[in-house]
Specification:
The complex is a heterodimer. Chain A is an alpha/beta fold. Helix content of chain A is 34%, strand content 29%. In chain A, a hairpin with a 2-residue loop joins β4 and β5. In chain A, α3 packs across α4, α3 runs parallel beside α5 and α4 crosses α5. The chains are: A alpha/beta, B alpha+beta.
C-alpha cells in the first residue's frame, strides 16, 4: 500500500530575475514501512523533494498524496495538523528545544496533540528514550549532550506520535562516521520495531547499504529507483 | 498552556540579560506611575481638603448674573457680581439639613493707592465678618506680625505674600498699625533699600467695580498673616472687615441701611442701570470722596461694626460647608433646587450654587492637569520602553528562527508560537511590573510615617497642603495595571508577527 504518491511534481524557486527549477517533474510512490534513501549531489533537488513530502514546502505543479490525502490543496492549519499526526522530522542540526530537557523534548509533539494524559505521554516518551539508549540522560538539556545523543533525541521525538512517515534530511551530515553509522542503525531498528516509513536524504554513498531502496535524483529528475 | 508557560519561563531565565533589561524598564515604569499616582491623588485630596477647609468651603453660592462659574481668579480682573439679598437667602440655607456652615463674603480686586506718587499696587480683597470667618475656617491663618482682627473690629489682615508683591510695585513696606518694622521679615529687595524704605500702616484701597462706584478708603493693617497651607494661592488675598470692603467697592453697606430712603430709591441704588439712575432727578448720589482720601474715615467712623446688622449689606459670594458624607454634586443639586423653588434662581437678584472646583477655576483642575501631565510623562517612558522591548524581543525572535521553525515543522500551530511570546512578555510584565506596583504601593503607604511637611509655597502646591500625604486608590492601581497590560500587548505585537511569519522551511534553510 502506497503511503506516498507523487505525480508530476515540479518545484520552482524565484531567484532574482531568474527561476530555479529545483524539481522538474517527479513521479514517485513509497510503500508503508519502507526505509528509503534519496541520494544525489548538492542542488539535485533531494531536500526540496523531502520538504514537499513533509508538507513544509509547497509544490509548484503536480500531485502529492500523503496517507491518501492530497496535500497540495491544504491550507496552513491542515498541513500543520497533518505534520503533527502523520509525519516525524529529523533535522541535520538536530533542532531540539534548548530550554527543555531530553524527556520534555520527546514529549513536545504529544503535548501539542492534546490527546493523551500526562502519564500516557510520559510513559511513551520514556519508552522511546530507552529504545534510543538515552535513559540515563532523560533529564539532561540538549546543551549537555553530544551530537550523536542529540540526534537520538530527535529520532525519539520524531517517533513519539507514532507517525506514518519519518523524514530525515541528511541526519548524519553533522556527525562523525562512527556516530553516523550508529544513528542509521538506530533508524533502521526503529523502522523495524515501529514499522514506520523512513525517508532520508544523503549525498554520502557509504550510507546506502542501510537503505532497502535507493532513489537517485539529479538536476530535479529521478534517475533511478 | 502549561507547556507554553514552561517554555516562556525557561526562555526568560535563559536570556537573563535581556529579561533583566526589559524587567527593569517595566519595574521603573510601574513604580513611577504608582508612586506618581499616589502623589497626585494625595495632592488632589490635599488640595480639596485645604481649599474646602481653608478658603472656599465645599460649595460657593454666586450671583446668577455671573457668566462663568470661575469666581476666584477672574479673567482680566473682571469684578465678581454682587449678592444683595443675603437676608432672603440665609433662612433658606438654614433650612437645608445637609449644610453644616455658611459664610457670606465680599471678594474682588482693589487698587492700592500709592501716596508717594509712584506706581499703585493691586490686591485681592476678601471682605468678611472676621468672627464668622474664624468659625468657618479654623486656624487657616497665622499672624506673622501684629494680631488678627478681634470680633467686630475693623481693619485689614495683609498676607506676607501680598505685602512683598505690593513692595515690588509700590516701593512701600506695610507694617501693622502701631507696630514696628521687623527687619527679619523684609523681602530681599526691601533689605537692600533699608535706608530709604518707606514704611506705612494704613494703605488706601480703591475697589475694582464694574459700575465705577468704588471709593478710596484707608484701612489700618491689623496684622501681617500667612495662610497655613497653599499660601502661594491664598497669599494674594488680603482679609478686610466686610464694612470697609463694601465702602472700598462702593457697595451698599449695612451702615447705609440706617439711612431712611424710599423703596423706589433703594431699588435704583441696588440697580446697575446707570442711565435710569442718572435719568431721575429724584436721586442724589453723594460723592464719597473717590478723589480725596478720607484719612480719618476708618478711625472715626469704622473702628467697630458692633451692633451693625452686617447681613443687610452687599456680598459677592456665600461659602458653604456640607455635613460629612454629603457629596458636593448632591449639595449643589439640592441647593439649586431650593433656590429655584424659592424663586431665588432668577437673573436678578438670583443666585446659583457651584462646586468649589468650578468656583476655583484652573486651581480646581490643577490636580487633574498635573495628573494628566504625569500620565503623559509615564506614557512617554512607556513608549521608550515599548521601543526597547520590541527591539529586544524581535532580536530574540530572530535568534530563535530555527527553533520556532522546528516547532512549526513538528506540528505547533501559529497560535502556540503567539502564546509562547505573549506568555514571555506577560510573565516579565507581571513579575517586574507587578513588583514595581507592589514597591510603589509600599512607598506610598510608608511616606506618611515620615511626617514630611513643608513651608515652601511651591512644594505645598505639589503636596496639596503643608504635609506630604500621598494616597492610592484602587482606581490608581487599576490604571497602572491597565497601562502595563497595554504595554504587554503593544510590545508583543510585532515580535509575534515576526515569529508567526516563520515557516517550518526556515528550520531547514538555517541549517
Amino acid at each position: 500500500m502506497n503511503i506516498i504518491e507523487i505525480k508530476g511534481l515540479k518545484k520552482d524557486y524565484p531567484l532574482g530575475k531568474t527561476t530555479v527549477n529545483a524539481v522538474r517533474g517527479v513521479d514517485l510512490n513509497i510503500e508503508e514501512g519502507e526505509f528509503i534513501s534519496i541520494i544525489g549531489p548538492s542542488g539535485s533537488g533531494k531536500t526540496t523533494l523531502l520538504n514537499v513530502i513533509g508538507c513544509i514546502d509547497t509544490a509548484t505543479e503536480g500531485s502529492v498524496k500523503v496517507g491518501g490525502a492530497e496535500i497540495t490543496i491544504m491550507n496552513d492549519r491542515a498541513l500543520t495538523d497533518l505534520r503533527l499526526h502523520k509525519i516525524g522530522f529529523i533535522f541535520q542540526t538536530f533542532n531540539l528545544i534548548p530550554v527543555l530537557d531530553v524527556i520534555e523534548n520527546v514529549e513536545f509533539p504529544l503535548l501539542l496533540m492534546k490527546k493523551h494524559t500526562k502519564s500516557e505521554i510520559r510513559k511513551r516518551a520514556l519508552k522511546l528514550i530507552e529504545e534510543v539508549g538515552l535513559k540515563e540522560h532523560a533529564t539532561h538539556r540538549p546543551a549537555e549532550l553530544s551530537g550523536g545523543q542529540r540526534q537520538r533525541v530527535a529520532i525519539a521525538r520524531a517517533l513519539v506520535t507514532n507517525p506514518d512517515i519519518v523524514l530525515a534530511d541528511e541526519p548524519t551530515a553533522n556527525l562523525d562516521s562512527v556516530t553516523g553509522a550508529q544513528i542509521l542503525e538506530l533508524m533502521r531498528e526503529m523502522n523495524k520495531i515501529e514499522n514506520t516509513t523512513f525517508i532520508f536524504s544523503t549525498h554520502d554513498e557509504h550510507v546506502l547499504k542501510y537503505a532497502n531502496r535507493v532513489v537517485k535524483i539529479k538536476d530535479g529528475f529521478i534517475m533511478e529507483g | 498552556m502549561e507547556l507554553i508557560f514552561k517554555i516562556a519561563w525557561r526562555n526568560i531565565l535563559r536570556h537573563r540579560g535581556k529579561s533583566i533589561i526589559i524587567g527593569i524598564i517595566l519595574f521603573l515604569g510601574s513604580l513611577i506611575m504608582t508612586v506618581g499616582n499616589g502623589v497626585i491623588s494625595g495632592m488632589d485630596s490635599g488640595l480639596e481638603k485645604n481649599i474646602v477647609n481653608g478658603f472656599m468651603g465645599d460649595i460657593v453660592i454666586i450671583s446668577s448674573k455671573e457668566r462663568s462659574d470661575n469666581i476666584l481668579f477672574k479673567i482680566m480682573g473682571k469684578s465678581v457680581e454682587t449678592i444683595t439679598n443675603y437676608k432672603d437667602i440665609k433662612p433658606l440655607l438654614e433650612q437645608q439639613d445637609y449644610i453644616e456652615a455658611k459664610l457670606p463674603v465680599g471678594k474682588n480686586g482693589a487698587m492700592v493707592i500709592n501716596e508717594e506718587e509712584g506706581e499703585p499696587g493691586y490686591a485681592y480683597l476678601l471682605g468678611v465678618d472676621f468672627k464668622e470667618y474664624k468659625e468657618f475656617f479654623k486656624d487657616n491663618i497665622t499672624p506673622v506680625e501684629g494680631t488678627l482682627l478681634g470680633d467686630a473690629e475693623q481693619g485689614l489682615l495683609m498676607s506676607a505674600k501680598a505685602r512683598d508683591e505690593l513692595y515690588e510695585s509700590m516701593n512701600v513696606w506695610f507694617i501693622p498699625h502701631g507696630g514696628k518694622l521687623e527687619e527679619a521679615n523684609l523681602s530681599e529687595d526691601a533689605k537692600e533699600n533699608l535706608n530709604s524704605l518707606i514704611v506705612k500702616e494704613n494703605p488706601v484701597f480703591m475697589g475694582f467695580s464694574d459700575n465705577n462706584s468704588s471709593s478710596d478708603i484707608r484701612v489700618p493693617v491689623k496684622g501681617i498673616i500667612k495662610y497655613r497651607a497653599l499660601n502661594t494661592i491664598w497669599g494674594h488675598f488680603a482679609i478686610m472687615d466686610i464694612e470697609s470692603y463694601r465702602r472700598a467697592l462702593g457697595y451698599f453697606s449695612s451702615a447705609d441701611t440706617k439711612i431712611d430712603i424710599s423703596d423706589e430709591k433703594k431699588m435704583l441704588l441696588e440697580s446697575d442701570d446707570l442711565d435710569s439712575m442718572f435719568g431721575s432727578e429724584s436721586i442724589i448720589v453723594p460723592d464719597k470722596g473717590s478723589k480725596d482720601i478720607d484719612v480719618d474715615f476708618t478711625r472715626k467712623k469704622l473702628s467697630t461694626t458692633e451692633g451693625v446688622d452686617l447681613e443687610s449689606g452687599t456680598y459677592n459670594l456665600i461659602f458653604i460647608k456640607l455635613k460629612s458624607g454629603i457629596s458636593m454634586e448632591h449639595g449643589v443639586s439640592r441647593l439649586n433646587e431650593a433656590f429655584s423653588n424659592a424663586a431665588l434662581s432668577g437673573t436678578d437678584p438670583g443666585v446659583r450654587a457651584v462646586t468649589w472646583k468650578k468656583g476655583a477655576g484652573p486651581i480646581g483642575n490643577m490636580a487633574t492637569i498635573i495628573k494628566g501631565a504625569l500620565f503623559f510623562f509615564v506614557m512617554m517612558l512607556f513608549v521608550v520602553a515599548i521601543i526597547i522591548i520590541v527591539n529586544t524581543l524581535t532580536m530574540a525572535t530572530l535568534e530563535r528562527v530555527t527553533e520556532i521553525g522546528m516547532m512549526r515543522a513538528v506540528g505547533a500551530r501559529k497560535s502556540f508560537i503567539s502564546g509562547m511570546f505573549v506568555g514571555e512578555t506577560a510573565m516579565l510584565s507581571g513579575l517586574f511590573g507587578g513588583f514595581g506596583i507592589i514597591v510603589g504601593v509600599v512607598v506610598v503607604k510608608l511616606i506618611p510615617y515620615f511626617n514630611i511637611t513643608t513651608d515652601n509655597d511651591m512644594v505645598q502646591l505639589l503636596y496639596g497642603g503643608d504635609k506630604f500625604f500621598p494616597i492610592l486608590s484602587f482606581v490608581d492601581i487599576f490604571v497602572v495595571i491597565m497601562q502595563l497590560f497595554a504595554v504587554t500587548v503593544i510590545t508583543v505585537l510585532y515580535p509575534v508577527k515576526v515569529a508567526t511569519g516563520i515557516v517550518p522551511l526556515d528550520a531547514i534553510s538555517r541549517d
